[in-house]
Amino acid sequence: IYPPAYHGARLRAATMAAAHRLVLLVLALLAVATIAAAASGARRAAVVGKSAVVSLLELDGRGAARETRSGSCYADAKRAEMLGESRKSGAARTATVLELKHHSLTTIPDDPAARDQYLRRLLAADEARANSLQIKNNRGAAASTQSGSSAEVPLTSGIRFQTLNYVTTIGLGGGSSGSAATNLTVIVDTGSDLTWVQCKPCSSCYAQRDPLFDPAGSATYAAVRCNASACAASLKAATGTPGSCATTGGGGSEKCYYALAYGDGSSSRGVLATDTLALGGAARIDGFVFGCGLSNRGLFGGTAGLMGLGRTELSLVSQTASRYGGVFSYCLPASTSGDASGSLSLGGGGGASPSYRNTTLVAYTRMIADPAQPPFYFLNVTGAAVGGNPVAAAGLGAGNVLIDSGTVITRLAPSVYRAVRAEFTRQFGAAGYPATAGFSILDTCYDLTGHEEVKVPLLTLRMEGGAEVTVDAAGMLFVVRKDGSQVCLAMASLSYEDQTPIIGNYQQKNKRVVYDTAGSRIGFADEDCSFV
Ligand SMILES: *[C@@H]1O[C@H](CO)[C@@H](O)[C@H](O)[C@H]1NC(C)=O
Ligand SMILES: *[C@@H]1O[C@H](CO)[C@@H](O)[C@H](O)[C@H]1NC(C)=O
Ligand SMILES: *[C@@H]1O[C@H](CO)[C@@H](O)[C@H](O)[C@H]1NC(C)=O
Ligand SMILES: *[C@@H]1O[C@H](CO)[C@@H](O)[C@H](O)[C@H]1NC(C)=O
Fold first, then answer.
1. Which of the 8 DSSP states describes residue 300?
2. Where are the alpha helices (DSSP H) in 207-250?
3. Measured from the CB, is residue 225 less than 6 Å from ligand 1?
4. Which of 187, 217, 293, 419 fits as disulfide partner to 391, beta carbons 3.0 to 4.6 Å?
5. First to last CA, the chain
6. Is the dihedral of CA 163, 338, 44, 55 positive or negative?
7. Chunked in runs of 10, what are the mean pLDDT values of the chain (532 residues)?
8. Known catalytic membership, residue 339
């Protein structure tokens, strides 16, 4: 659901009692739903000159507060649902749509001091992830000390995943014995390849909500042989380390063991195996290679494991390429509502696919690979504009930009960030909003108390080949204080010009982001990301 301003509706003052706010929000949501149903094309009209008028109330609901998914709400997460399958003529192209839920590990507190601390931890964890992705130069570590992250976040294992909070549900195993597949809720990660789940008999597993996957209960389960290429080259490309061969138990059969060790101390180790993967209930992929994790450590938030959507052979995208054509896409919801969810579509690239509900054409740019970081998706950002005004910076077009589903806040090269900030400050500041203190990694903040609505200049990124992506209003500002007295530009600077810029998920909200590995291109279109 879009901020009502998009539809020409306006919300009134944000300074009212909580009960009134709730009623107002419900009314607003109803109003938006009605308007959206009546005229889905209306939203562009309210975006004038690449700025958007949004109410403070909406910003609060859709800004920082969207991180409020609590454990109990997560427990209510609906199971993966299949919206529909569409067969295309010609190549075996099928689209499967999975529900993508937002989920985070802790509840955002209402108390201002506790909320402050929560958001600091969230941003510090995000900084830890952004730094962990800077594998080419480890100077990121110095940067995190500089911004105080190390002081705010104890480097316990799993920090890298703490911000990776979109989950979906898959089915695994079952087979011909008549037993049903085990439904498992997993974290969706475009920054890694091997899909893994916790497995019986666990030598060390963290607590998860779903029942543990039991290989013994699946007739279609098989361990991958040591001499298989999946155990050697494929595993090395996916995880950095080839499998190790070991004979366990009295059976004498050799098994291929994988070891995933993430930079922050979290890990998964176990047996590389194959089984039938069920996506969205109906779609079944036989012989899917995954990690049967016997020893897993980290903050995976009660999920059963992880779905790897990276670029190498073992990723789910590559393994299902004959069915889905190597295409997947997602739409990340902006809403904080407990029922809000987006979608993860496998396949369905191009044409009038029923799995997309994009309101603009999908604009594509070249997908770039970096041999030093095989799972990651890169692209080339050649230009930027704020509120429709182009900005110039040495860092534009200078290096590969990572697009990541797990980093929250977009990180720009220092020269690019400075130029974007200067133009944003000029336009936003000119509207009379007083600047206020920075917050964690966010250095450009305003006091918006007393303003019912704000006109937000939107950032447009121009990609190689001409595709233009304008960040949704929900992705421009981060509401630190609920009363609007500290609202920050939701972007941050890298420490060094040669570090890898990252397009984070906060700026990908309400976009259909298409990863076409066969066509080697990444596409963007506007879309209302609610999964209905
Ligand atoms: C792998 O080893 C098994 C026996 O352990 C053998 O039957 C199979 O042919 C081998 N496969 C390859 C590709 O070498
Ligand atoms: C798993 O999910 C599918 C699809 O939603 C459902 O049909 C099936 O009953 C579920 N299986 C179990 C064991 O819950
Ligand atoms: C959605 O994207 C597809 C693929 O680019 C395109 O054919 C279709 O026209 C788009 N829908 C709208 C409403 O622009
Ligand atoms: C990005 O695209 C521009 C324009 O096509 C090109 O000059 C530049 O070399 C490209 N940069 C990278 C890192 O590919």
1. -
2. 233-239
3. yes
4. 419
5. 11
6. negative
7. 28 32 38 34 47 72 33 24 29 66 64 88 83 61 37 40 72 74 90 94 91 93 92 89 79 85 78 93 87 90 90 95 92 68 78 71 95 92 96 95 91 98 94 94 95 92 96 91 94 95 93 94 90 56
8. no
Cβ of 280 below 6 Å from ligand 2: no
Ligand nearest to the CA of 41: 3
Looking at ligand 1, which residue's alpha carbon is closest to its atom 2? 227
Q: Which ligand is in closest contact with the Cα of 284?
A: 2
The single residue listed with the structure tokens 């138990």 is 249
Question: Which member of 60, 189, 193, 516 is catalytic?
Answer: 189
Q: Could you tell me the pTM of the whole model?
A: 0.82
Q: Which two tokens stand for residue 47?
A: 């975006």
DSSP 199: B
Sheet of 491-493, strand order: 377-379, 401-403, 502-503, 410-412, 491-493
Nearest CA to ligand 2 atom 14: 183
**Whole-angstrom Cα distance, residue 176 to residue 73?**
34
Residues ≥6 apart with Cβ < 8 Å to 114: none
Q: Scan for tokens 């090269």, then name that residue.
A: 413
CA nearest ligand 3 atom 13, residue: 359
DSSP 262: -
CA atoms within 13 A on the CB side of 15: 8
Sequence-separated contacts (24+) of 17-21 with Cβ below 8 Å:
21/57
**Cβ–Cβ contacts within 10 Å for residue 351, how many?**
10
Query: Cβ distance 532 to 335 under 8 Å?
Result: no
Tell me which residue of 79, 107, 83 sits closest to 95, measured CA to CA: 83
60, 126, 264, 404: which one is catalytic? 404
Nearest ligand by distance to the CA of 395:
4
Written as one string, the DSSP assignment of 168-191 is EEEEE--GGGSPPPEEEEEEEETT
Q: Are 491 and 389 in contact (CB under 8 A)?
A: no
60 belongs to the catalytic site: no
d(CA 89, CA 414): 48
Amino acid at 154: P
Whose C-alpha lies nearest to ligand 4, atom 6?
A: 397
Whether residue 183 has its Cβ less than 6 Å from ligand 2: yes
Q: Ligand 2, atom 7: nearest CA belongs to which residue?
A: 281
Q: What is the 3-state secondary structure (H, E, C) of 125-164?
A: HHHHHHHHCCCCCCCHHHHHHHCCHHHHCCCCCCHHHHCC
SS3 state of residue 6 = helix
Residues in Cβ contact with 360 at an 8 Å cutoff, skipping those fewer than 6 apart: 44, 525, 526
In contact, 288 and 276? CB cutoff 8 Å: yes
Distance 316 CA to ligand 2 centre (A): 20
